[in-house]
Specification:
The chain is α+β, with helices and mostly antiparallel strands. It contains 16 helices and 36 strands. Strands 18, 19, 20, 21, 22, 23, 29, 31, 33, 34, 35 and 36 form a twelve-stranded mixed beta sheet that branches. α4 links the parallel β4 and β5.
């Protein structure tokens, strides 16, 4: 069976419109009936993806353009999930690079484009959101196109790759054009637009899959899925040969040759994976029959065929310790898992995500997971929490490297900030306090009533930990921030993570409003009246740098004397809501975050008041 095939992925920075574009590609290709109701961002199937409005997991779909089948992979746009992008690029033969017409190329744009160019892909540039007010005169759009070209040259694109075709699009409205002069007519709806120019361009620009000679079957596993009916599913591009149900196959990986029989063969059609008689070379297929298959394994019809090189991704830069929950409230709000079950759950996640690593520690109930960023850890923690688990996590720690002379190297990141001009001086001070070096200051929308600027800082990864909430506070929530790893450089010296100490409960009980009212002037509270407390639990941020042991359970003494002002209603001034990500930014080395299905609490590693110092120098190494 000879299929006319194209395999492409859609890459971009977060929130530049990848998933919205896929929605309209599916609709306009005739994959769905005209009357069929579809939700927006139909490819974002995880609850967390819909809640946060970002793509977390790479996903496959397929459309028919005439007689040609086009396999499309929607990839994440956040740098923390770059491992998803890296392992997917080997499955495809071309890329659609989406860039916001107002924001221009941002850090993840650089990261994903560099990987795509390294694979030799032909890249089609889609300048999206050309209907934004900032682009009404077309000048900003021209600037962005020039920035994209400069980025291609900077990343070492070949002459063929640098001669890219530009498509101007509004993914939200489902239209695009190759002619910049048509944009005003399309925006005003004087002319009805479609995505047909993009469909034609994909068929013209993206090459057909290159397949190896020979009839022996070979596939590199790039993704995994699961079916209640046929079990574990291996997803990848068929490099040569044909696979049919009932064929004997061999899984090759980690020095293991495991024989199995194909129990099911599927390929993609629209959003569904449908059972077929066979999958052929060049197509993206789904194979069932092996419950032990892992990402990076090779599936071949002959054990004598050498295994393909395993998928390589950028090394992790952060580590986090996961621990069994040892708090006094353990087991009361969820499943208090044992170390074996916690270990199994983390190893299962690492097997499905090549960007994560797993390590045992010296303690039997604590395990280290290595990853890319705080958001990646936060997503993993939230998934486990929704599965009903109780556990604890420590502060994210930066991973160092050792130079040839024995000195310590640390990861340096380029942080790109888009913010109102009035906040620039305060943000610059914040970043310089964290060893940040300002390398670029670029004015944006100068003629606007609220001018914005784009700043670029070189800053240690340690300096970015806990920075996001401070940055949003400094910009009144109106700032955008993204970053990517630049290199490993000599250690920049000590950085103070948190200036203030913690207010720590010194006994078990329930929080009382009377006690909290009397503690308000000591700092900022994290808990509400009625919250269940225990000794060693952090209930607020102290106004000074040392920790403060307090009694938030103290009740008002009753007397038979009534004063005129005693019963005046007094309410708490304000309580800081410490969610998961805010807690990850806030905690220090001597603290845990206790995660349960119902609550996120911060506690000291040493609970007993008389065994714990309140001085910063003695409590943090």
């Amino acid at each position: 069976m000879n299929l006319d095939l194209r395999n492409i992925c859609i890459i971009a920075h977060v929130d530049h419109g990848k998933t919205t574009l896929v929605d309209h590609l599916l609709r306009q290709s005739g994959t769905f009936a005209e009357h069929q109701a579809l939700s927006e961002r139909v490819m974002d199937s995880m609850d967390l993806e819909r809640e946060r409005g970002i793509t977390i997991m790479a996903k496959n779909t397929a459309i028919k353009v005439g007689s040609t089948k086009v396999n499309i992979v929607d990839t994440p746009g956040h740098a923390d999930f770059g491992g998803e992008v890296e392992r997917i690029l080997g499955m495809v033969d071309g890329s659609l690079l989406l860039v916001d017409a107002a924001e221009g190329p941002l850090p993840q744009t650089r990261f994903v484009l560099q990987k795509s160019l390294a694979y030799g892909h032909r890249v089609i540039v889609v300048v999206n959101k050309v209907d934004r007010p900032e682009c009404s005169d077309g000048l900003r759009t021209k600037e962005v196109v020039n920035q994209i070209f400069d980025l291609f040259i900077e990343l070492g694109a070949t002459e063929v790759q640098a001669d890219f075709t530009i498509v101007y699009a509004c993914a939200r409205e489902g239209w695009c054009t190759l002619d910049e002069t048509e944009i005003p007519k399309l925006i005003s709806k004087e002319v009805k637009g479609t995505l047909k120019p993009l469909f034609d361009l994909i068929l013209k620009e993206v090459s057909k899959p290159v397949v190896a000679e020979g009839t022996d079957f070979q596939m590199l596993v790039s993704n995994l899925s699961y079916s209640d009916y046929v079990g574990r599913l291996a997803i990848g591009k068929i490099l040569r040969g044909t696979a049919k149900k009932g064929m004997r196959m061999t899984r090759q990986g980690d020095g293991v040759n495991e024989a199995f029989v194909l129990t099911n063969v599927q390929t993609y059609l629209g959003l569904r994976s449908v059972e077929v008689d066979e999958v052929v070379a060049g197509d993206i297929g789904t194979l069932a029959g092996c419950e032990t298959v892992q990402i990076g394994d090779t599936i071949a019809s002959n054990a004598a065929i050498p295994a393909l090189p395993r998928i390589k991704v950028e090394p992790p830069t952060l580590a986090m310790v996961f621990s069994v929950n040892t708090s006094p409230l353990s087991g009361k709000e969820g499943e208090a898992i044992q170390s074996r079950k916690l270990r199994d759950r983390l190893q299962r996640e690492v097997r499905n995500n090549v960007a994560l690593r797993f390590q045992d520690t010296d303690l039997p109930d604590q395990f280290r997971v290595l990853g890319r960023g705080e958001l990646q850890f936060a997503i993993l923690i939230e998934q486990m929490r929704r599965e009903g688990f109780e556990f604890m996590v420590g502060k994210p720690i930066v991973l160092y490297q050792t130079a040839e002379d024995g000195s310590r190297l640390e990861p340096i990141e380029i942080a790109v900030l888009d913010l109102p001009e009035v906040s620039a001086s305060e943000v610059t001070r914040l970043f310089q306090e964290r060893k940040g070096l300002l390398v670029k200051y670029e004015a944006q929308s100068v003629e606007s009533a609220n001018p914005r600027v784009r700043l670029e800082f070189e800053i240690p990864s340690r300096g970015l930990l806990g920075m996001r909430s401070r940055y949003l506070t400094a910009t009144r929530g109106d700032g955008l921030m993204s970053s990517y790893i630049k290199s490993y450089e000599p250690h920049k010296g000590e950085i103070l993570h948190r200036q203030n100490g913690a207010m720590v409960c010194d006994r078990a009980g329930d929080a009382v409003e009377y006690a909290l009212l009397n503690l308000e002037d000591r700092g900022v509270l994290f808990i509400k009246p009625g919250a269940t407390l225990y000794e060693g639990m952090v209930v607020g941020e102290h106004a000074k740098e040392n920790d403060l042991n307090i009694n938030p359970c103290k009740e008002k003494k009753l007397t038979n004397i009534r004063s005129a002002h005693a019963e005046v209603l007094v309410t708490l001034a304000g309580i800081r809501d410490m969610g998961l990500e805010r807690s990850l930014e806030w905690i220090d080395e001597d603290e845990w975050i206790e995660v349960t299905p119902q609550n996120v609490r911060i506690r000291k590693k040493v609970l007993s008041t008389n065994l714990r110092s309140v001085k910063r120098a003695e409590r943090v190494n």
